[in-house]
Amino acid sequence: MSDDTPTPAVPESPAEPEISVEEIAEQKAVRLAKRERLIATGEAYPVSLPITTTIPAVRAEFGHLVADDVTGVTVGLAGRVVFSRNTGKLCFASLQSGDGSRIQAMVSLAEVGEESLERWKEYVDLGDHVFVRGEVISSRRGELSILVTEWAIAAKALLPLPNLYVELNEETRVRQRYLDLISREQARANARARALAVASLRSTFAGHDYLEIETPMLQVIPGGAAARPFTTHSNAFDTELYLRIAPELYLKRAVVGGIDRVFEINRNFRNEGADSTHSPEFAMLEAYQAYGDYHQMADLTQELIQNAALAVAGSHVVTWADGTEYDLGGDWDRISMYESLSAAAGVTITTATALPELKALADAQGIEVKLATHGKYVEELWEHFVKADLVRPTFVMDFPVDTSPLVRDHRSIPGAVEKWDLYIRGFELATGYSELVDPVIQRERFIEQAAQGARGDDEAMRLDEEFLRALEHGMPPTGGMGMGIDRLLMALTGLGIRETILFPLVK
Length: 507
Hints:
Layout: H1 21-41, H2 55-62, E1 70-86, E2 90-96, E3 102-108, H3 109-112, H4 114-123, E4 129-138, E5 144-155, H5 170-175, H6 177-183, H7 185-207, E6 211-212, E7 218-219, E8 231-234, E9 239-243, H8 248-256, E10 261-269, E11 281-290, H9 294-313, E12 317-319, E13 325-327, E14 333-336, H10 337-345, H11 355-364, H12 374-385, E15 394-400, E16 416-424, E17 427-434, H13 439-454, H14 465-472, E18 478-484, H15 485-493, H16 497-500
Parallel strand pairs: 3-5, 6-10, 14-15
Antiparallel strand pairs: 1-2, 1-4, 2-3, 4-5, 7-9, 8-9, 10-11, 11-18, 12-13, 15-16, 16-17, 17-18
Helix pairs in contact: 6-7, 7-9, 7-15, 10-12, 11-12, 13-14
């Protein structure tokens, strides 16, 4: 056998510039012509191939081979061509599987014959999916290889791959995630991490006897969160509908019906801004536990996240994409919103602090609060004075009543509710409640929300008579929590939200 050329891990010389639009168009024309010839003489997109194994499986079984080893084992496998070098009597290609594993294919005159070798040289381009059959060997340089005796095009690529040794820019990664997955290990790792995290969440819930259900995505009345909804129209019902902003009100109906421990992992839609921590379409986890409260839901949330960290990183100490280590272990801090704000602002602020005092403090800090209420001022001031200094995972407890219409009044602090927000890495990751189950008070809260909507608050909740009817049948004391799946991945990987969502919405 002639000398072989393994795929380099990094470029040995400065990378060539990106392919121009004109070059891409020219390459596409050439590949289209090859496609026509392949179809005329055989197959460009066969429906099936005699595949017997995968690249990862061959690497796992034969990765121990040393230079010039032979096995006598014949396999049939397929992969995408990501490197190719053609010489006179021997052609080399690196075939890549979906997980990024690679193996070398060696196509020689001696093994396949002159006609087959020339067809390889004529038809096989970078990016093509190729099937090869042959013996598993190790080349002279110790490269795990298939000594090909038979091959076929599995799928002809009409567009060239990007330069695999130059990282794609963020815009290309987001808009053409398939290229990102082909070319970048981190992209493949992100997809695997998300799947592992979600599987871990379900496993933890199963261990606590929770039942997973599905709730409507199209709703007559949007509810369960303070957010602006997307609207659509049903031709069948000739009515305006809303995309779900949260599953809360339906999950609570399930608790009323006797499903005491219930959760859902779902897609939510909020017609609001997009930035490094927000997306108009996002994945959400919500869970409710009859006879629980917000303290128990905080315990559960910590367990969910720590187990997800173990599933993804193998440790409670996760390493972010920039190399920073972040410790999710131990028991997390729990601080009072009012007490932490008072300490940071240097003035005592309670649920009884008058609106003019809060406004004066906000004005002094240059904080503008729209649709001013006590609660909105307190939350804006807390974000200004306290939020940036939170380093460890922290539950911020006990919120103003007027900003939390679905939450039970605090058992010992008048004017506050039993709610927490969990902050990790400086952003809100999850929220938890002792749920409001009194239908009379819930109706009063909805009416007040409607009044705020009439005053111009387009995020105010709407009165939902069907939900109130369910509550009137009796809902047990309940704890609830919600967590963004995309944000959970941000906490585990250190990436922005557009990297944790495989196919984010872009303009």
